[in-house]
Amino acid sequence: MSTTLTCAFAQWSPGLGDNALMGWVTVGVYLVAALASGLVARRLSGPDPLAPRERRFWAITAVVMLCLAINKQLDLQTLLTLLARCQAQLSGWYDARRGVQVAFIYLVAGGGAFALGLMALALRGILGRVWPALPGLGLVCVFVVIRAASFHHVDMFLSGTVSRIKLNWLLELPGPVLVALAAFRRRIARAGA
Questions:
Q1: pLDDT for 157 beyond 70
Q2: Rounded CA gap, 82 and 14, in Å?
Q3: Are 179 and 133 a contacting pair, CB within 8 Å?
Q4: Which of 15, 80, 89, 92 sits at 20 to 30 Å (Cα–Cα) from 116?
Q5: Does the pLDDT of residue 69 top 80, yes or no?
Q6: What is the enclosing helix (H) or strand (E) of 166?
């Protein structure tokens, strides 16, 4: 394991992963989503018996968005990818990595579907209050998994542009934007109640 770490850290070092304007805009969107979710979680109280479950949902969402904001600049998924690549090289199965990457995608997709089912069960009763945030969380998770899988042709696709707008931005930003809008919507609905 120490050889794997040495290999990975020889290729990666902590620093700003995306120091361009849109990188910081994306960090800002994640932070707004985290703050909005945290504020909703903080304000939920009262006699409503479902408030603790909803508070927990928004608090977890706030933590996830905050972690993703930090990760956007630290680029920790690249470190994880390098760890996997170094381990594959040192273990001698690097040439068979495509099959492992495909299996990883299928496992994550299956795990995600299972987690969605569990989440729907856990959120019963409050699903109507939090559902607008769920597609946003789903988009963020799918984007992170795709980036972590690090297929070369996927990375090339994400670095492409449409009308001078990077596909990476078009795929990453909608998730935290939806979470932020859902949190603001919930906060407004809560204030009006």
A1: no
A2: 13
A3: yes
A4: 80
A5: yes
A6: strand 165-166
pTM of the model: 0.80
Q: Which tokens in the block code for residue 175?
A: 């998730």
Q: What is the tally of helices (H) and strands (E) in the chain?
A: 10, 2
Residue 161 φ/ψ, nearest 5 degrees: -130, 155
166 beta partners: 161
Strands 165-166 and 161-162: antiparallel
In this structure, the number of other CB atoms found within 10 A of the CB of residue 81 comes to 18
Residue 97: DSSP 8-state: H
Contacts of residue 147, Cβ cutoff 8 Å, sequence gap at least 6: 77, 158
Residue range 169-178: mean pLDDT, rounded:
88
Structure tokens at 165: 């707008």
* SS3 of the chain: helix, strand, coil, percent, to 5: 80, 0, 20
d(CA 136, CA 11): 32
| pLDDT (tens digit per residue) in 11-24 | 777 766 677 788 89
- Alpha-carbon distance 57 to 38, whole Å? 10
- Residue 181's pLDDT is 95
